[in-house]
């Protein structure tokens, strides 16, 4: 694609921001524009999540963005993350806009917490097959998949825990991470309380107040801007057969994430690279079991083999496939995957705190268990 | 140790064991500091740290930084959000005044719910 | 006489009494208690072998497990008055301690208190309340060794709905029901577990929908299931609380003998492959909920 991410910006990541979601969005967008070397008046497109409470026009008002020729929203929670960049890239490629900012901001800890049972969501007819039965939190919905995955492949709670240990290890050396300086051991993971068996507390991502924004423009325009661009090598969305939001329980196989398989096929085809060409993987990690399934769907290992792949040390910073060097959403912050894209950009620029050497390609994925999206970012 | 110097950030994991053992070590037997059922019944989310412990933690934060030769002259604290079991209490501090050997250090202890404690500690350091 | 002036009058009366009689600590300053304190706080300061950590000063004179306030204790007297006026909750808000010198092991401290200030009623995040400030002085013999201004907030707890120890089923989340799904819930009311069956090609389908993904027909019918199947996967839910449920509880995804999967709560010890059958529980005239129980003949 003829587009690149040229600016990234974020607020602090906290448990109680003390300000409105609109202020967080405005601060993140302004920071991203400053990073890109652009002015609000340069922006003519905005993209966010359907779930975001900050209307494009409200963000434009706060920033003093005078005119917009493109605005768009993506559905399905965290599955939207990489798709916001896809929307922006398509807008830039078609001439619908020149400079598009993707943003996501919320008080997800001090305000509306996704980890609680959302009784209002029960009004959705799809949810009438889960919420009234007591299945009403994302953790519990993922736990249903995880239990079957354990049953079929012999995976254990410790196999899930290794993902948490890696994320927290990487977060421990990232000063922006909530869990900076606070690594955990596998024993800590095993000692943490049950949330929804087989998921423990430390299998679940944090809840965060904060905002992240990304500036997308054409590759040509990117050449005139101060930062090394992170080129969008491929971007795609994915949904698969008999798809539900978090509760796709009626497919033949409950150990897979076929929508991520759709994303994987699209990314490899459009970028011309394959799993072995990926230098850094930023995989969506709201719950640890789905990181294992993603490794399989994306082709980094065979079905049921993710636990051995993880135990081999491949995901360490000096391993074959460094995972979430910023600490992921378990370690850095839960920003619906947008902070992971920002980390992908830093890895391409060579400016990450836990920088991996010689990065050519970064893979970033969005929310799992929902219709999702993915990105391959790379050098020019 | 000059005005503006920051103390290194310090994290305390307020495990139930920590909340209870410090309450007992400070001879504070109020049920909200050791009995979760009663704490919840009284409207709390969980058991929480008692004020004598917070005073102790603030003193320790400053003396850990200043060294064992420093003499503590005053610990003034104001409490905000309770520090519940399973919270992480993060301490930050800064030197705000120095007069000869007398230093004034401002301290904040913060959890995910907000500021648990803000305080001022006066110490005397060796010449 | 208003509450406010009554409370202020009582406060003035207590303040006029001045300093309470010295109350002696249970024990002299001693190493075992110092070491317990250091261990709990995690303080590795090497200097507390002959003197006590200054922040322990209040510890020496705490009332203890069965402690009772002395009759002339001004804080206790003021609290009783506020309790009576309905300000029953107490939280400590300030502690300002000044240490004139470090206490040596073996010294026996005593403490006196005065009521310094009572202000209120004030609106706070915790509810309407009074701030009560006392001043305490610790002595070794006649020598004052430390002082403290201590402030508590005595408040009337903000009105909150009483906690519900029992979670009646009526509080549970009710299903959204529309034209495409009402046959299922109607079946539950009649004690039937219904599976959507395509009127065109006969495809069985759950959850249901208005158009058959196989043949495109829009005339769905249903068959009545035997209500038996085996557990395909399950979750034991612990946190957070779920309206109408007592944690922990089990939700099981069951593969029915007819081939489709359905997800309900399971009353029993779960395992994959466990044979189960459906049971129906009437919630009210509008709603009957299905759930699973282990099969007796397994």
From TrEMBL, chain A:
Xref: CDD domains: SCP-x_thiolase
Classification via InterPro entries: Thiolase, Thiolase-like, Thiolase_C_2, Thiolase_N
Residue ranges of every copy of the Thiolase C-terminal domain listed in the record: 250-371
Record-annotated Thiolase N-terminal domain positions: 5-219
Domain of life of the native organism: Bacteria
Pfam family, one: Thiolase_N
PANTHER family linked to this entry: ACETYL-COA C-ACETYLTRANSFERASE, NON-SPECIFIC LIPID-TRANSFER PROTEIN-LIKE 2
NCBIfam families, A to Z: PRK07855.1
Name the UniProt record assigns to this protein: Acetyl-CoA acetyltransferase
Originating organism: Lentzea atacamensis
TrEMBL record, chain B:
Gene3D superfamilies named among the record's database cross-references: Hotdog Thioesterase
InterPro entries: HotDog_dom_sf
CDD domains assigned: SAV4209 (cd03455)
Highest taxon, organism lineage: Bacteria
SUPFAM superfamilies in UniProt: Thioesterase/thiol ester dehydrase-isomerase
Identification of the protein by name: MaoC dehydratase-like protein
Organism annotation: Lentzea atacamensis
Automatic annotation (TrEMBL), chain C:
InterPro entries: ChsH2_C, ChsH2_Znr, FAS1-like_DH_region, HotDog_dom_sf, NA-bd_OB-fold, Thioester_dehydratase-like
Stretches assigned to the ChsH2 rubredoxin-like zinc ribbon domain: 185-219
Pfam family, one: OB_ChsH2_C
Domain ChsH2 C-terminal OB-fold per the UniProt entry, residue ranges: 226-280
Domain (FAS1-like dehydratase) ranges: 28-148
Tree of life domain: Bacteria
Protein name in the entry: DNA-binding protein
């Amino acid at each position: 694609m003829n587009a690149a991410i040229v600016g990234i910006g974020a607020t602090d990541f906290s448990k109680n921001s003390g300000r409105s979601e609109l202020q967080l969005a405005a601060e993140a967008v302004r920071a991203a524009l400053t990073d890109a070397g652009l002015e609000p008046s340069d922006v003519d497109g905005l993209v966010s999540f359907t779930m975001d409470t900050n209307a494009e026009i409200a963000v434009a008002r706060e920033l003093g963005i005078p005119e917009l020729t493109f605005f768009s929203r993506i559905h399905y929670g965290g599955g939207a993350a990489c798709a916001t960049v896809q929307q922006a890239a398509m807008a830039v490629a078609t001439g619908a806009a020149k400079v598009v900012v993707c943003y996501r901001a919320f008080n997800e800890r001090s305000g509306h917490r996704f980890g609680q049972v959302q009784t209002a969501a029960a009004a959705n007819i799809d949810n009438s097959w889960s919420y009234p039965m007591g299945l009403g939190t994302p953790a519990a919905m993922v736990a249903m998949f995880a239990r079957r995955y354990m049953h079929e492949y012999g995976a254990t709670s410790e196999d899930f825990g290794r993902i948490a240990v890696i994320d927290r290890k990487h977060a421990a050396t990232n000063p922006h991470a909530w869990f900076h300086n606070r690594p955990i051991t596998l024993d800590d993971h095993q000692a943490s309380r049950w949330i929804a068996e087989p998921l423990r507390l430390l299998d679940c991502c944090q809840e965060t107040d904060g905002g992240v924004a990304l500036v997308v423009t054409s590759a040509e325009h990117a050449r005139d801007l101060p930062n090394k661009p992170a080129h969008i090598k491929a971007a795609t969305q994915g949904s698969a057969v008999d798809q539900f939001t978090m509760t796709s329980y009626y497919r033949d196989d409950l150990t897979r994430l076929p929508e991520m398989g759709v994303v994987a096929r699209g990314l490899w085809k459009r970028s011309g690279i394959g799993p072995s060409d990926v230098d850094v993987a930023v995989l969506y990690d709201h719950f640890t079991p789905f990181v294992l399934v993603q490794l399989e769907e994306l082709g980094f290992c065979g079905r049921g083999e993710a636990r051995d792949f993880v135990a081999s040390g491949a995901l360490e910073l000096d391993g074959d496939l460094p995972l979430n060097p910023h600490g992921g959403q378990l370690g850095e912050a839960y920003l619906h995957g947008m902070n992971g894209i920002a980390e992908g950009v830093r890895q391409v620029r060579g400016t990450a705190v836990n920088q991996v050497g010689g990065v050519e390609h970064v893979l970033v994925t969005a929310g799992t268990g929902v219709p999702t999206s993915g990105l391959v970012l790379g050098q020019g | 140790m000059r005005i503006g110097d920051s103390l290194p950030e310090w994290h305390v994991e307020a495990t139930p064991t920590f909340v209870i053992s410090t309450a007992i070590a400070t001879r504070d037997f109020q049920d909200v500091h050791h009995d979760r059922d009663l704490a919840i019944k009284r409207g709390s989310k969980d058991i929480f740290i008692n004020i004598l412990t917070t005073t102790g933690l603030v003193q320790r934060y400053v003396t850990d930084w200043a060294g064992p030769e420093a003499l503590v002259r005053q610990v003034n604290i104001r409490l905000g959000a309770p520090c519940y079991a399973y919270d992480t209490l993060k301490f930050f501090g800064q030197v705000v005044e120095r007069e000869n050997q007398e230093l004034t250090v401002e301290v904040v202890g913060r959890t995910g719910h907000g500021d648990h404690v803000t305080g001022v500690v006066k110490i005397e350091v060796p010449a | 006489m208003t509450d406010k002036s009554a409370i202020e009058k009582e406060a003035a009366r207590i303040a006029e009494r001045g300093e309470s009689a010295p109350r002696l600590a249970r024990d002299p300053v001693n190493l075992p208690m110092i070491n317990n304190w250091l261990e709990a706080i995690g303080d590795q300061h090497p200097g507390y072998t002959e003197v006590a950590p200054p922040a322990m000063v209040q510890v020496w004179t705490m009332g203890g497990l069965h402690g009772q306030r002395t009759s002339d204790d001004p804080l206790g007297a003021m609290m009783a008055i506020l309790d009576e006026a309905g300000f029953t909750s107490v939280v400590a808000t300030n502690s300002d301690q000044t240490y004139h010198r470090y206490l040596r092991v073996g010294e026996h401290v005593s403490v006196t208190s005065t009521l310094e200030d009572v202000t209120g009623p004030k609106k706070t995040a915790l509810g309407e309340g009074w701030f009560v400030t006392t001043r305490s002085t610790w002595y070794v013999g006649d020598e004052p060794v430390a002082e403290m201004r201590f402030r508590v907030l005595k408040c009337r707890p903000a009105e909150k709905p009483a906690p519900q120890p029992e979670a009646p089923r009526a509080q549970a989340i009710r299903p959204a029901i529309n034209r495409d799904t009402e046959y299922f819930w109607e079946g539950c009311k009649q004690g039937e577990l219904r599976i959507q069956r395509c009127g065109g090609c006969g495809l069985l389908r759950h959850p249901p929908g208005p158009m058959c993904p196989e043949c495109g027909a829009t005339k769905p019918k249903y068959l009545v299931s035997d209500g038996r199947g085996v557990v395909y996967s399950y979750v034991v839910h612990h946190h957070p609380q779920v309206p109408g449920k007592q944690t922990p509880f089990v939700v099981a995804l069951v593969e029915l003998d007819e081939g489709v999967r359905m997800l309900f709560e399971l009353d029993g010890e779960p395992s994959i492959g466990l044979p189960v059958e459906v049971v129906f529980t009437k919630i009210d005239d509008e709603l009957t909920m299905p759930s699973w129980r282990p099969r007796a003949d397994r």
